[in-house]
Amino acid sequence: MTAGRPFTCSVFIGISLDGFIAREDGDLHWLTSRGEAAGGDLGYQEFIDGIDTVVMGRGTYEPGLTYDPWPHEGRHCAVLSSSLPLDADPRVTVHRDLGTLLRALEERGTKSVYVDGGQVIRTFLREGLIDELTITTVPVLIGTGLPLFGPVGRDVPLTHVSTRVFGAGVVQSTYAVEQSANAAGREV
Question: Of 75, 83, 25, 31, nearest to 57 (Cα)?
Answer without folding.
Answer: 83
